[in-house]
Structures are given as structure tokens and as C-alpha cells.
Amino acid sequence: MIATAQALPDIRVSPEIVLIVAVADNGVIGSRGAMPWRLKSDMRRLKAMTLARPVVMGRKTFASIGRPLPGRTNIVVTRDAGFRAHGAVVTTSIADARAVARGDALRRFATEIAVIGGAEIYTQWMDCADRLEITEVHARPEGDTCFAAIDAAIWQEVARERHPAGPDDSADFSYVTYRRRKSH
Length: 184
Ligand SMILES: NC(=O)c1ccc[n+]([C@@H]2O[C@H](COP(=O)([O-])OP(=O)(O)OC[C@H]3O[C@@H](n4cnc5c(N)ncnc54)[C@H](OP(=O)(O)O)[C@@H]3O)[C@@H](O)[C@H]2O)c1
Known about the structure:
This protein is α/β, with parallel strands linked by helices and 184 residues long. It has helices at 40-50, 59-65, 94-108, 119-125; strands at residues 16-24, 28-30, 54-58, 73-77, 88-91, 112-115, 131-137, 145-146, 155-163, 173-180.
């Protein structure tokens, strides 16, 4: 079948960089290498938001997931040039991860690159992100890893949906979308 130009996304536009993160009301995102809550609803959403896209993550987050996420190009960032991970592309700098993710997005006709953590990686991608997809977890768990406060001068909240905890969720949660303000 020959695809018409109209059926294809506009690949002249760079893929958007989207940070996807679940953050507790006290800023915690992780505890001892894992997430200190159970939110099956959010896991399903993460899958829907990242399938058929490149996903970028730090080596520690990759270790905490324990396997490559299926149906996505898993791009792992580490400073260890000898690190190998079956089913993932290993990169040794943020710049390399970005170049690999961009190439993969263009090949897949994906319009987004998803950055899925953890804290070290979010910090380094924040300045080039176009959108933040935050799951506010309405709990105050103990933890050792936090997400930096979202600067309202840079980020504008454009959507918010609150949900009660489902049968497999340990807390109520809200999905909140932020877009970078035009002047930044
Ligand atoms: N709530 C959420 O949505 C969410 C999402 C993801 C993760 N988490 C949690 O966050 C925690 C992990 O976060 P984290 O901040 O400790 O670790 P991380 O960001 O997942 O990974 C950090 C590692 O990435 C590599 N790295 C970082 N910057 C790099 C650079 N500029 N160049 C090359 N490699 C670089 C280093 O790997 P090497 O040490 O191998 O050099 C570093 O140790 C866990 O508790 C996890 O469960 C929460």
C-alpha cells in the first residue's frame, strides 16, 4: 500500500520531550530503589502513553523495573561504558540518549520521546522538556528520592483530573499536564 502524505504525521517537527512522573504530595518519587505506593491505574496509563515510542531512563530506574518495557525502544543512560542490557539501547550521556531517542522517534513516526525517570534523569531533561505529565499521588510516604518543585514561571498547568483510588491503588491520585510557557 502506498501511504499518502496526508496520512503521515509531520516529521519536520521535532518530537516533543515529555517527562512522565508520579509524585507524592510531599515530593517523594522513590524509596530504596522502588516506588513507595501501588497504583495499577497509573501503570496502565504509563503504558498507554509510552507504547510505540522511545522511553529514556536512568540505569537505576531500569534496574528497578527489572526488564525492558515491551513495545517501546528502551534507552538506558549510564556512565558505565561497559554496561549492557538485553533488549535496551545503552547510552553514556544525556546528549547521546537524546540523539538516539530522536532518531528512534523519527523512524517510528512517533511524535514524542518519553522520559520516565528517575530523579537524576528528570533533573537533566527538565530544561529541554516540552511537557510534564504528572501523576500527583495523594499520600505522604517516606522516601529517599524526590522530584524538584515545578516552577510556575516556566510551566503552565493545562489539564487536571482527580481520581479516587481504584481496587489496585493505594491512594487517590490526579493526572496533571503542564506545558512550557511560550516565553521559556
Ligand atoms: N515515581 C516515579 O514516577 C518514578 C519514575 C522512575 C523512577 N522512580 C524512582 O526513582 C528512583 C531512581 O532514581 P535515581 O535518581 O536514583 O536514579 P536514575 O535517575 O534512575 O538513574 C541514575 C543513574 O543514571 C545514570 N546517569 C545519570 N546522569 C547521567 C549522565 N549525565 N550521563 C550518563 N549517565 C547518567 C547513572 O548511572 P550509572 O550509575 O550506571 O553510571 C546514574 O547512577 C527509584 O526509587 C525509582 O523507583 C520513580
